[in-house]
Specification:
Order of helices and strands of chain B: HHHHEHEEH
Strand content of chain A: under 5%
Structural class of chain B: mainly alpha
Number of domains of chain B: 2
Largest sheet of chain A: none
Radius of gyration of chain B: 20 Å
Helix content of chain B: 55-70%
Largest interface: A-B, 51 and 40 residues
Shape of chain A: elongated
Largest sheet of chain B: 3 strands, antiparallel
Distance between the termini of chain B: 26 Å
Helix content of chain A: over 70%
Number of strands of chain A: 0
Order of helices and strands of chain A: HHHH
Number of helices of chain B: 6
Distance between the termini of chain A: 73 Å
Oligomer: heterodimer
Number of domains of chain A: 1
Shape of chain B: elongated
Number of helices of chain A: 4
Radius of gyration of chain A: 22 Å
Strand content of chain B: 5-15%
Number of strands of chain B: 3
């Protein structure tokens, strides 16, 4: 029984390490800021997930009482990862992407990031003073 | 009366469970402590939840979570393969507009989060009046298929749960 658990835990650690490594490598290899966002948001999910599953199994099999903290880490990770990615994407859209490059928002005027209210001053004017 | 004491039953349950998980114990004492927090916090923060999400079919959440977890594993492998074996020139990145049938903000948030976590797609923005999502695809030879896939696989299920 312990032998099987050890093998499973080892497998989870190796899988987790592999995906963490691929996610980090993707950051270097991919050539576009938006493409780079894909590597850490996804490949790392399984990377962290593998390590967490291994940690949970270890605490249940080899320690006196098990641990549930890993479930919470997963929950927090799933809440924060998409939001972080969304913020980085929005910052990128702000700084680099022109409206013509993006597809048409069907039904609406424009995308929220590019939507400048009529009353807001132009950025150039605010920088003068 | 019950509504004032218990403005957000789901939040109460969630807080109790999270408290017990944080303490890593399932004893009665921790359960009571979690329940006390779960009762007080929703009352204090009730002003910040003007529109509480109403779940029409809460049991469908289980099926949705299972599908999303399967897709996350698949997406991790897909992205890893693209990163390792596909040259940057051969990739076909694309921006896709996903028109929304969902109305409730919570449902749209869940959909946006799901899109970010699943195969080769990433939510970048919402349209100015909230009727469409801007999605970036890492490698999409057929952007329209990606859009249809998102609508069929996730949005229809979320619509059942939330609306």
């Amino acid at each position: 029984m312990e032998m099987i658990a050890e093998i499973v835990i080892t497998a989870c650690l190796v899988i987790g390490g592999f995906f963490g490594l691929v996610g980090s490598y993707g950051l270097i290899k991919l050539d576009h800021p938006m493409a780079r966002l894909h590597a850490p948001t996804k490949a790392t999910t399984l990377g962290v997930g593998g390590v967490l599953i291994a940690s949970m199994l270890y605490s249940w099999v080899f320690e006196t009482h098990g641990s549930f903290h890993e479930l919470l880490i997963t929950l927090f990770l799933f809440i924060t990862a998409p939001i972080t990615a969304n913020f980085i994407a929005k910052a990128y859209l702000h700084r680099h992407e022109q409206e013509e490059v993006l597809p048409d928002p069907q039904g609406d005027k424009t995308w929220a990031v590019l939507n400048r209210p009529a009353f807001s001053p132009e950025p150039e004017e605010t920088q003068k003073g | 009366m019950l509504r004032r004491l218990l403005p957000h039953p789901l939040l109460t349950a969630l807080l109790t469970v999270v408290w017990m998980l944080l303490n890593n114990s399932a004893t009665l004492g921790q359960f009571v402590m979690g329940l006390i927090l779960g009762l007080i916090i929703p009352v204090i923060t009730a002003a910040y939840w003007p529109d509480r999400p109403v779940l029409k079919k809460p049991m469908n959440i289980i099926g949705y979570v299972l599908i999303v977890m399967y897709d996350i594993v698949k997406s991790n492998i897909d992205v890893a393969l693209i990163v390792l074996f596909k040259s940057n020139a051969a990739r076909q990145p694309a921006w896709v507009t996903v028109p929304l049938d969902l109305k409730s903000p919570e449902a749209i948030t869940v959909l946006a989060g799901t899109i970010t976590m699943t195969p080769g797609t990433l939510t970048a923005d919402l349209s100015s009046e909230g009727h469409a999502l801007l999605v970036h695809c890492l490698d999409a030879p057929d952007p329209q298929a990606v859009c249809q896939d998102i609508k069929d696989r996730y949005e229809s299920r979320l619509k059942e749960i939330f609306e």
